[in-house]
Write a structure and sequence with these properties.
The structure is a homotetramer of 199-residue chains. Chain A folds into two domains: 5-65, Orthogonal Bundle (Arc Repressor Mutant, subunit A), CATH 1.10.10.60; 68-193, Tetracycline Repressor, domain 2 (Orthogonal Bundle), CATH 1.10.357. In chain A, 37% of the residues are buried. Chain A is elongated, with a radius of gyration of 20 Å. Chain A has ten helices and no strands. By secondary structure, the first copy, chain A, is mainly α. Chains in contact: A-B, C-D. The structure holds a DNA duplex (21 and 21 nucleotides). Chains A, B, C, D: It comes from Lentibacillus populi.
DNA sequence: AATGAATGAGACTTCATTCAT
DNA sequence: TATGAATGAAGTCTCATTCAT
């Protein structure tokens, strides 16, 4: 007697709720500061039920870092390296990134923890690092395009890309607000300067 | 019976050794990942002796964050807002900052933890935040000076200052190496772009 | 709606399969070392289904010890106390016992557990103890017969019977092999000595 | 400041008390049936303190099996294979063994558990098995001596030795009393028959 | 009857802190 | 001051049992 469709959906929802609670708590309380009990309470799930969905705390942490990465990276990587007008593309990319980073507080705090202590979370770090490389590579391409077209000043592109991603994670770390607000818009224009636009 | 001078010095050294070990371990293993036993072993001090110098773990953590701040902030704040040539001053500041951040891995990883989880470490965060404000303020002044002298493009100065400090903590987070190396020099020039230099 | 004959048979088979798995596992992993999940997997039955056939773990354990006892005791007690030639009867009994004990590894390991920790499994122990008494009594009778007929030396019979059953459970404990093999035959002749045969 | 002699002695006593409690409990309740809490209570020691002396439950179990083995094996192996009068030596050996096994209930129940589930306690079994081999070997020698001198009937010696050790562990398993009593003496003479004495 | 998710009690273990020496 | 044994609270995880489907 397999599970009914309704039950299956319910379980998927439940799993997601646990994961969301875990992300929030891991982000704000840290790995050891977060107890399974807290997660269960926050997700309105019984203590033991957490283990129905995640083998152990470590796996739950890993899932908290890795699972949202798919959607997130897709959004972050959504820009065109071969754009006709690289300056406009850059502007749009920066705008989107800033707004995205403004709105995703918990997850990015979690990411910052993993990035800050790679040897403590090797599996999670591995995945993040891979994405990070991909992102920097793609940004680097767009910059090269801009330099080619003479709208960006000539400079090594990878350091700039690295600085840019550092800046993104850095502002997320430095800001305590949870949602996007006008304040974040102020960052767009100076952040663009990093790429050395020629007007 | 008062302690001899030699004993007093010895104790000061011991305390510092414990603090250094604590910083390294808190940085790499996190707060609850770091045990008093590990700290004692790393500092080559007996287990119970740690409590002779620090009341409890929390205070030791606080000291790990706060005590190095004095020297560190002095170095970071060592630039002249009223410089004759703000561009040169900026260049020197950025160079110094990058080199400084390159060389202080453990402590800054620790700082990033506190900044990322402010409500978990309120006392420590308070101090760091205060320093951060002071730093941004001072950088903002230097930028204003540059804009006044027409060597920097006009833009809101605080967002730029914030971006700059974000960038600093961000590159520290993104790099795993423990010491300054030539690689870090690549960041200086693009980081300068952030301020919108006019040549 | 009563169950069809086929269903009834199926359930009986299923119950036996669970019991067999339980015996094997209880024997090799011990009571708490054995989980319902393991039993279910081993019996190729769903987890919850185990509880359809056995109220709880304790009852399943009890059944594991008690149910096979019927067949087993029948075989063990199958010898003739009033045999014409008690020496031959003894020889045949010992041979049969050794072969039987050689072939029933799991169950006897389980029995040994219960016998070794009587106060932990009082109900199970009770039953085994009763059978044990019966067995010793019957062996004692056969010995007496032999002594009467002058083919066994005179000695107290109960201690000999007890030693004999001890020896049987002891060799089972000391041997790791699961099936009867020629090795076991070596034990027959010396075991017979226990009874003090006169030739 | 190393520990004082008195403290060291105290710790040794404490460790032994824990070990003794563990042996008793493991014997009567089994491995999983025995909790650290129970052991601590029985040894009149705080819960956490158990871990000062034994890394974890498994190690405590191993120590419970292995540490008493030294004294025990010494006593069990204390007989002379080259005795002038092997019959007398055998008689003395059996007497001593029976009395020894009568008086060491808990430890031998524990031994029986390990022997019965070797794959569950591989490390402990290893040690016991080694001792067992040594014992059988030595008994075998004494039997050979007796056969040589014509006071024991000719038969394979190893099976007899194995039967004898089986018998010893078997009677220990079958008897519930904790101390040596006259009852045990009844076993001596029939047990001797096993070796096929010629009078 | 059959299934497997849900529950929470209870086990092991770690570790900050206390304290006697 | 220095040491490390003693304590027990708190955390993770397992698993028998229940129960809705």
């Amino acid at each position: 007697m397999p599970l009914s469709e309704e039950q299956r959906l319910n379980m998927i929802k439940k799993r997601q709720k646990i994961l969301d609670s875990a992300i929030t708590l891991f982000a704000s309380e840290g790995y050891e500061g977060t107890t399974i009990k807290k997660i269960a309470e926050s997700a309105e799930v019984s203590f033991g039920n957490v283990f129905t969905y995640f083998k152990d705390k470590e796996q739950l942490f890993l899932a908290s870092v890795v699972e949202p990465l798919g959607t997130f990276s897709e959004q972050v990587l959504d820009f065109n390296t071969d754009a006709e007008d690289p300056l406009v593309e850059l502007q749009e990319m920066v705008t989107k990134h800033i707004q995205l980073f403004a709105g995703v507080k918990s997850y990015l705090t979690l990411v910052a923890q993993v990035v800050g202590q790679p040897h403590r979370y090797p599996a999670a770090f591995e995945q993040l690092d891979q994405f990070h490389d991909q992102l920097r590579e793609k940004i680097s391409c767009l910059i090269k395009n801009g330099q080619h077209k003479g709208v960006l000043m000539k400079q090594d592109t990878m350091p700039v890309a690295t600085l840019y991603t550092s800046l993104l994670i850095g502002i997320r770390l430095n800001n305590t607000d949870t949602r996007y607000s006008k304040i974040w818009d102020q960052y767009i224009s100076p952040a663009l300067q990093l790429f050395g636009p020629i007007n």
